[in-house]
Design brief:
The chain is of the alpha/beta class. The protein is built from 18 helices and 23 strands. A hairpin with a 2-residue loop joins strand 1 (12-16) and strand 2 (19-23). It starts with a helix and ends in a 23-residue tail after the last strand.
Length: 527
């Protein structure tokens, strides 16, 4: 097996086609105290990409290349975005995973298992209604949704009837699997047993007396666990340089919390001296949720936050059009630098160490590189240039010393909000501290839902569902918007993951396809 015994000598490794599963055998606790945890994130995403995954894979390759025991923990790609607009999520250039297309297209079947288990819950709920069971579920108060791992805007709202025996027409919707409630709790579970207990006590509906109906009331937990038995074991893949990468779970960051599973991260921390992991999209969506949600569940604070940035992304935030990003523009580079500064302030608000890694593009000019390095030096920002995409680990040894020199041993974090705060106060704190907003506006519908469910959501996390392109809720407001408020039109409750989803403008829990989907560009080769 490829470079496995060095890390997983104490675990049973099961081969799944081109990949492997690490059998945890219901392991509940891991020894993660010795490993360094490094979170890789980025500024607000732009059309050309910031190279967050590329940077993470490259850093893991660098550390292993020079003899350090390092491992990466990534999210699993969703097929919807792969065939839609985003494309793959497996790195590129010299920082790519082996068998990338298979990883992007089904992998070991985890998403299908989550989809099946999620939809089983919904079908059982509806069967209880059809059979007029003693649960007396109110069909107008079902909280669960079906899911599918594909972008399909026609499934955002569906109307249907269970049978001719029932006069009631049902109104429901599909979420994409990565945004399903089950995916979120799957990724926050500490073990199979913990996942089972979380799910048993998940509210999925209310009955006609307005009392909650839990998954345990449906009497299907063993069937769910049977479906998810293999899926709860982390997947093991490898980079081009034969270094291990755990890929497990894949919730979206602009809809859910955007982190790979706690189980895989715990496993990585227990088998390596360095663990590189990432959060979805930029600091305002992904890193905020990683730090406010996942670290509480993981009980481990990052020793360092790596902020991936490109010269192109800063120029884009500085006003340069996409078609002109390959042209030298020092003015827009300096203007867009403000977005990096604001995102750094957000990391500082958590009291964590950080560094900036410039992911070099081949057409970046030397003047632009020197300008960005000088801007960082003037602000006393630790910054280094990475050519890992072009050159691989051999030419980037300097990054190892750079990372090691900035690691912190402190296990302290300043959370943006307390779990005891109200949902509205939590939203205000995140909006003001992380987004730089003046405040938050809740619609009447959202406020009414919060009041009706107040007894169930006292200590829940919050999970903003907003655009990833801007710090605001308006995708067109780039760089560092001023004088704006965040509008929350609706809320949803993920009782399984214990967070309230705050839905802002122009956000759908089921993405649509662009005019020319990526599916039209993919070419399959017979082998």
């Amino acid at each position: 097996m490829k470079n496995i015994k060095r890390f997983f000598d104490d675990y049973e490794i099961i081969q799944y086609g081109n990949f492997y599963k690490v059998n945890l055998k219901n392991k509940i606790t891991f020894d993660n105290k010795k490993s360094k945890l490094i979170l890789v994130t980025s500024i607000n995403p732009t059309p050309t990409g910031e190279g967050k995954t590329t940077t993470l894979i490259g850093l893991n390759d660098c550390f292993n290349y020079y003899g350090y025991k390092s491992i990466a923990a990534l999210r699993q790609p969703s097929m919807g975005p792969f065939f839609g607009i985003k494309g793959g999520a497996t790195g590129s250039g010299n920082c790519e995973l082996i068998n990338a297309n298979k990883i992007n297209c089904g992998f070991t079947g985890d998403f299908f298992a989550i989809e099946a288990a999620n939809n089983l819950i919904m079908s059982i709920i509806e069967n209880e209604i059809y059979q007029n069971s003693s649960l007396e579920i109110d069909e107008s108060k079902i909280l669960w949704n079906r899911c599918i791992d594909m972008n399909d805007r026609s499934l955002r709202k569906i109307e249907y009837s269970l049978s001719n025996k029932l006069s009631t027409n049902f109104s429901s919707k599909f979420n994409i699997t990565a945004a399903s409630y089950l995916m979120a709790s799957f990724c926050l579970a500490k073990s199979k047993l913990d996942f089972k207990n979380k799910l048993l006590n998940t509210i999925v509906a209310f009955n006609k007396k307005n009392n909650p109906v839990y998954v345990k009331d449906l009497d299907i937990i063993d069937s769910i666990m049977m479906i998810l038995d293999d899926a709860l074991n982390p997947n093991l893949a490898f980079s081009k340089y034969n270094n291990p990468v755990l890929i497990h779970g894949g919730p979206f960051a602009n809809i859910a919390h955007g982190c790979n599973t706690v189980i895989a991260t715990e496993l990585a921390l227990s088998v390596a001296d360095y663990t590189f992991t990432e959060s979805g999209f930029g600091i305002d969506l992904g890193a905020e949720k990683f730090l406010n949600i996942k670290t509480r569940e993981l009980n481990k604070v990052p020793n360092l936050v790596v902020i991936a940035v490109t010269i192109k992304s800063l120029k884009y935030h500085g006003g340069t059009l996409v078609q002109d990003l390959n042209k030298e523009n020092l003015y827009s580079l300096e203007t867009g630098f403000s977005n990096l500064l604001k995102n750094i302030d957000s990391i500082k608000s958590f009291g964590l160490n950080y560094v900036v890694v410039i992911n070099k593009f081949n057409d970046d000019t030397q003047k632009e590189i020197d300008k960005l390095l000088q801007l960082c030096k003037d602000k006393k920002i630790p910054c280094e240039l990475s050519t890992m995409w072009q050159d691989g680990p051999k030419a980037n040894k300097h990054l190892i010393e750079f990372i090691n020199n900035n690691l912190s041993d402190k296990n302290v974090i300043k959370y943006t909000y307390k779990l005891s705060d109200s949902i509205i106060d939590k939203a205000k704190l995140v909006a003001k501290t992380i987004y730089g907003a003046d405040g938050v506006n809740f619609s009447e519908q959202a406020i009414n839902k919060l009041k009706e469910n107040q007894q169930f959501i006292q200590d829940y996390y919050i999970c903003f569902a907003k655009t990833f392109s801007s710090l605001s809720d308006d995708a067109k407001k780039l760089n560092v918007p001023k004088g704006f408020t965040i509008s929350i039109n609706d809320v949803e409750f993920n009782h399984s993951a214990r967070f309230v989803i705050l839905i802002t403008t122009q956000i759908f829990l089921m993405p649509g396809l662009p005019k020319i989907p990526n599916a039209k560009r993919i070419r399959y080769e017979f082998r």
